[in-house]
Design goal:
two-stranded parallel sheet, 7% strand, Histone, subunit A, 53% helix, mainly alpha, three-stranded parallel sheet, Rossmann fold
Amino acid sequence: MGPTGSGKSALALELTERLPAEIVSVDSAMIYRGMDIGTDKPSRAVRTRIPHHLIDICDPAERYNAARFITDATAAIAAITARGRLPILVGGTFLYFRALVHGLSPLPGADPSVRAELHREAAARGWPALHGELAQIDPATAARIAPGDTQRLERALELVRLTGQVPSRLYTKNGTGAAFNFLKIALWPYDRNALSAKLARRFSHMLEQGLLCEVKALRERGDLDESCPAVRAVGYRQLWHYLDGACDFAEAERRAIVATRRYAKRQMTWLRGESDIIRVAAGETALQAVWLELQRGFGRVFSGFDRATIRRTISKLICAPPTTTKGDDDNGQDA
């Protein structure tokens, strides 16, 4: 785990080159086909060499949620372990991580009448005003939801009106988590200024790679709009506004960079509230630090594996830990 730009994806690839492992993506934007540049997906060559799961499993018009992720991730993890390999879960959609580890809260379903009421209020007052309302009654949840994330904001306020309780309290009432042992490691960028500059460079590089053309291709389908979570992914939404004529290109780029930085900040806020997470400084020494944590946590992580897998992994882990990380690219997207 870790905020966008912390180097999760590159580190996971380094680990799979040294361990009998496969990668399970925990990213709510990488699931969509045709969204490659803006999500910084691993190339097809990389995915051919190193198995990745839960990438390109949905059309951008589809909606995907935590319940479906639990089903898909549990199946992927079971298949990987059955092959005698280690599943490495990598991504920045922490709601999915939490749902998999702790289970989903027993929450009420959607209520059309409440949602219609919220949409009427949003039309009259604006979604930012409703976000302010949520911030007054549940600051913790509001800090994790961007004012423009209308889907999650709607759901949070719907829960308040249906249950009379704030979402942050409801979400602590977990269901049954997956029957796996997890070693939770977060890459932590202690130099926030360096992270901020890196995120700006990364988005500029995505534009050079053809991100605008990718967004144009999505628009030309004719069946997508901002009601689709895929279109609301960071970078895609801002360029969509540019193509709508709502701003010029330079302003769209600026807004996308600001949105990415805010996203990273929300991710770090989320991580601070999680328990049992081992923080590792992001950067060149991260691989070595994570390797040592795997050695320390070996018994807990591999308690359910067969002996052959344990022997193979031990033979890898007892080697001296690697000293550097090759790169620090990261997908860093969330719808």
